[in-house]
Amino acid sequence: MATSKTKTKTVFFCNECGYESPKWVGQCPACREWNTMVEERVSASAAVKSTKEALTKGESIVASISQISLEEESKTSTGIKEFDRVLGGGVVPGSLTLVGGDPGIGKSTLLLQTCRLMGNSGVKILYVSGEESLKQIKLRALRIGDFSDCVELMCETNLAVIEEVIRKKKPGIVIIDSIQTMFVEDVTSAPGSVSQVRESTGILMRIAKGMDVSVFIVGHVTKEGTVAGPRVLEHMVDTVLYFEGDRHASYRILRGVKNRFGSTNEIGVFEMRSEGLVEVANPSEFMLEGRPKDASGCVVSCSMEGSRPILLEIQALVCRTNFGIPRRQAQGADYNRLNLLMAVLEKRVGLSLGECDAYLNIAGGIKVTEPAIDLGIVLAVVSSFRNKPLSPDLVAFGEVGLSGEVRSIPQIEGRVKEAAKLGFKSCMVPATGKDALKNIDGIKILYVNSVAEAISLI
């Protein structure tokens, strides 16, 4: 009697976009990236089986727009205000959220703290771990605090078993730690491969939408800082959150990269302590701790992260080079932006910086890409070059153009109010934003049109 065998075939998947090809190619035809194709074995009957099951169940619903009732989605608070801010107000029922970050930065700790707070408020939670045993999770939980019986733990990597448990327990929130350890039996490749990650995420998305369960997925990151696995993983989920910051530093930044239910510009700031992650209510004050008062090359600027202004210290060190080619280095800011601004100073102001090494640092390790800190970088470089300290009560922000002009930036009033709240006495802003800015008590506003004018004022 002949036995039926499952046919397997070898295909190549793109790590970036998930494109499937029957043979290896150097450049992906879909996303045009080089050397991203990886070889995997897949089951030919898996796709046919899932298609037949879907046709048998008849789960697809066809409806016109007029037949769909639109109701306001209620959001459940996590009990952590900074986490709620990044999520857009709270957890949306049926949402699928991906949390990525470097190893040891605090992804599992944040989600475990969320389990504790939401569990104490009566939300039923299932925490599924594929990397730690129940005893290891218990040891980590003891450090955070007391947990209610609403939080249940499970160590499993087979998604078929996990799906069955979810259907029986009917939790409100499910946490998967991590997606790279999960596997689907129908896919023959190893856990963590492109096929497994994509299929596992597809099943979790079906669970979230079909059972109205909020699912949080922990994702490992590559050395480039992106979530390991196919790029299509980020397109499938509703929200993508990234943990930033040096794992050896005390603070952490949770940034929303994608959010279908809120803004992607918001950030949450936390401080890592022995009892877990603690919210930082005032990030500006936290970033300016230990600021030197009479040191040259230091100036305070302001960057907007969503609706939140954050004051930060810009440090510059300019000195004569000992080599033929001057060295330039930037930490926390764009290296090319530093070269551009130094070229503007040399051409428009006449500073001889061509034979100088230049080092730029954003204190605290935060990364800023907003051009609003250009004026702060320029003043810090000039202060270090001339070895003259700036006033410790000065805040400067504005975009600098190639002609040396200081251009307007958005939300000037919010930045000035933040500076006044922290006790700064003067604020240097672009003159083009004068009409949009009202007088604010307790702070003197200096309007500048160009870099040369700003330097003359200090």
Output the strand order for the largest sheet.
6-5-7-8-4-9-10-11-12
- Per the principal axes of the C-alpha atoms, what is the gross shape? globular
The CATH topology label of the largest domain is Rossmann fold
Structural class label: alpha/beta
CATH class of the largest domain, please?
Alpha Beta
* Chain oligomer state: single chain
CATH architecture of the largest domain: 3-Layer(aba) Sandwich
Alpha-carbon Rg, integer: 26 Å
Helix proportion of residues, in percent? 25-40%
The number of helices is 12
The overall number of domains is 3
CATH superfamily of the largest domain, by name, is P-loop containing nucleotide triphosphate hydrolases
Question: Unreliable runs, pLDDT <50, ≥5 residues?
Answer: none
From the N-terminal CA to the C-terminal CA, the straight-line distance is 93 Å
How many strand units?
A: 21
Rounded average pLDDT: 86
Biggest sheet descriptor? 9 strands, mixed
**Approximately what portion of the residues adopt beta-strand conformation?**
25-35%
